[in-house]
């Protein structure tokens, strides 16, 4: 019996909520290590107690079922304490990218209607800066500060992160598999970031399908350096939970420390994104390259030319595949069935179509937009929070429209071509061109701006801005960088800038970004890295 079938049999449809998954696995695995972050180590039984204790703490703070709790926190135990506690009482976690600033952060906090914010010091400063500019606009009623005591005279809503007492437990809420577990904000393509409503059962299927393709067995050690506020690392927790394994969470990715960390924790599975592979390959070879036990890495989006070189040098295999925050691990193949340059085949329990602009299916071998749907209840996201129009648009004709252009060959293998959506992906982060453009347009010297992706040396995208200045205005590029740094996440600041007399546009004035992408970087383009400008982080 394969892992997918075994899990589907072990967890009846009504049992695919996080509280019931935790209870069952705690009974089964007890003192086996489930989660480690820094000095914190929780067994399966202790993780259940953390959920119960922090569920009680949240309830004592007035948080109830369906309430949203914003979580602006790096990879540390407090992140998981809130995530588990919210799940236990039926509340909804809203993980936020720790680099979020300005309009994007305001939008997430306002759109989600979060009553409580749990944040580290830098996040608190970012929120205070927002409220200083426009006091009273945010819905926050309370703030828990992680890792420090609030300063004297601090915001009266702000208190130190509570130390929950294990004996102060609370019973689990009657959470259903279709209830929302988390709202994950994914960068908008033609508008504001959208909050993806992810139900409990969606994470069950993420863990099951990922675990199946990774070949997980009991007692493995999964190590991630990716941020917990993203789908990838969050799903790794469910892979560990469902397989009886351990998840080790490191603070961040460091190319110089990556292999030593894997060896120290005796990891057997890890996770890399497209840009991480060429970065690791660019480092000088050392004995640490193979001084580890890792046999496989989940590696979506790694260009095929890097697979064999990476495997030969570091002694582990790379597993490709396709999924998104709104969907699941829908396309993939186990290692013996993988084909370089393809994402794999459709996984059981999902349906796919490749269509033209009118949702008509195209013949095999012809590119089109990838449409998806799930056979199992709540295996996909349920929509975009507070954005009914965007939900209807994305799920029109009862299929989820990915916005990704793919080809499916005669053998059923899918290959990624490009994105139809106007989004930029840099170092594993999604960047909304719309949100960057809004920051640029707020500068008094800028008349028109268009932001679009250009290819980088690291196999992913870099953001480029084409700008038309107001008549008579001048704007030095370094001054523009300083302006951007305080108003957006560091990874969203455009690397390339070019001032133009006008932007290519249609008759009705819509900027033709495809022409700008085709034009790309020119001899007149200013390159932040070539100029030696270092962004503050």
Instruction: Return the CATH class of the domain at 38-199.
Output: Alpha Beta
Helix content: 25-40%
How large is the count of helical segments? 15
Give the uncertain stretches in residue-range form.
Answer: none
Report the end-to-end length measured between terminal Cα atoms: 48 Å
Textual characterization of the structure:
Helix content is about 30%, strand content about 25%. The protein is of the alpha/beta class. Among the domains are: about 40-200, Rossmann fold (3-Layer(aba) Sandwich); about 345-415, Roll (Luciferase, domain 3), CATH 2.30.38; about 425-525, ANL, C-terminal domain (GMP Synthetase, Chain A, domain 3, 2-Layer Sandwich), CATH 3.30.300.30. It has a seven-stranded mixed β-sheet with strand order 2-1-11-10-12-13-14, with helices on both faces. The longest helix has 17 residues, at about 45-60. It is globular, with a radius of gyration of 23 Å. The model has no long low-confidence stretch (mean pLDDT about 90).
How is the secondary structure organized here?
Elements: H1 3-10, H2 18-29, E1 33-37, E2 40-43, H3 44-60, E3 68-72, H4 77-89, E4 92-95, H5 102-112, E5 116-119, H6 121-133, E6 142-145, E7 158-160, E8 180-186, E9 194-199, H7 200-214, E10 221-224, H8 231-243, E11 246-249, H9 258-264, E12 269-271, H10 276-281, E13 296-298, H11 304-314, E14 317-319, E15 321-322, E16 331-332, E17 344-346, E18 350-355, E19 368-374, H12 388-394, E20 400-408, E21 413-419, E22 423-426, E23 429-432, H13 433-441, E24 446-455, E25 461-469, H14 477-485, E26 496-499, H15 513-519, E27 526-527
Parallel strand pairs: 1-11, 3-4, 3-5, 5-6, 6-7, 10-11, 10-12, 12-13, 13-14, 25-26
Antiparallel strand pairs: 1-2, 8-9, 15-16, 16-17, 17-21, 18-19, 19-20, 20-21, 22-23, 24-25, 26-27
Helix pairs in contact: 1-7, 2-3, 3-4, 5-6, 7-8
């Amino acid at each position: 019996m394969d892992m997918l079938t075994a899990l589907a049999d072990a967890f009846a449809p009504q049992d695919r909520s996080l509280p019931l998954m935790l209870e069952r696995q705690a009974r089964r695995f007890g003192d086996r290590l489930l989660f480690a972050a820094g000095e914190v180590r929780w067994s399966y039984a202790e993780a259940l107690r953390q959920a119960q204790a922090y569920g009680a703490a949240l309830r004592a703070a007035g948080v109830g079922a369906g309430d949203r709790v914003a979580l602006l926190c790096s990879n540390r135990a407090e992140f998981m304490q809130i995530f588990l506690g919210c799940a236990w009482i039926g509340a909804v976690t809203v993980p936020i990218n720790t680099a979020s600033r300005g309009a994007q952060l305001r939008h997430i906090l306002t759109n989600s209607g979060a009553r409580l914010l749990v944040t580290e010091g830098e996040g608190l400063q970012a929120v205070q800066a927002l409220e200083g500019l426009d006091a009273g606009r945010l819905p926050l009623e309370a703030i828990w500060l992680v890792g420090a005591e609030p300063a004297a005279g601090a915001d009266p809503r702000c208190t130190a992160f509570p130390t929950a007492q294990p004996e102060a437990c609370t019973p689990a809420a009657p959470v259903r598999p279709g209830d929302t577990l988390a709202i994950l904000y994914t960068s908008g393509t033609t508008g504001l970031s959208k909050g993806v409503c992810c139900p409990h059962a969606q994470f069950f299927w993420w863990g099951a399908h990922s675990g199946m393709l990774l070949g997980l067995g009991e007692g493995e050690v999964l190590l991630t350096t990716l941020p917990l506020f993203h789908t990838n690392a969050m799903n790794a927790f469910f892979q560990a939970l469902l397989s009886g394994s351990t998840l080790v969470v490191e603070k961040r990715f460091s190319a110089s420390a990556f292999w030593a960390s894997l060896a120290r924790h005796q990891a057997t599975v890890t996770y890399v994104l497209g840009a991480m592979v060429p970065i690791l390959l660019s480092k000088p070879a050392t004995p640490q390259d193979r001084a580890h036990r890792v046999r496989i890495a989940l590696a979506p989006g790694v260009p095929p030319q890097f697979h064999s070189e990476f495997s030969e040098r570091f002694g582990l295999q790379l597993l490709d595949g396709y999924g998104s925050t709104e969907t699941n691990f829908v396309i993939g193949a186990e290692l013996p069935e993988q084909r370089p340059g393809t994402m794999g085949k459709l996984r059981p329990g999902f349906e796919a179509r490749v269509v033209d602009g009118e949702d008509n299916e195209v013949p095999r071998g012809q590119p089109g937009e990838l449409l998806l749907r799930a056979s199992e209840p709540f295996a996909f996201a349920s929509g975009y929070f507070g954005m009914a129009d965007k939900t209807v648009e994305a799920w029109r004709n009862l299929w989820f429209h990915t916005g990704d252009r793919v080809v499916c060959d005669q053998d059923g293998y899918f290959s990624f071509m490009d994105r139809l959506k106007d989004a930029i992906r840099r170092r594993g982060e999604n960047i909304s061109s719309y949100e960057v453009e809004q920051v640029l347009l707020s500068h008094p010297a800028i008349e028109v701006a268009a932001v679009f992706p250009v290819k980088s040396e690291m196999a992913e995208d870099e953001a480029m801005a084409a700008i038309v200045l107001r008549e008579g205005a001048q704007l030095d590029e370094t001054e523009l960088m300083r302006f951007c740094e305080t108003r957006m996440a560091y990874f969203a600041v455009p690397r390339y800038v070019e001032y133009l007399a006008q932007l290519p546009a249609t008759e009705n004035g819509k900027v033709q970004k495809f022409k700008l992408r085709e034009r790309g970087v020119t001899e007149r383009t200013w390159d932040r890295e070539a100029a030696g400008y270092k962004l503050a982080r």
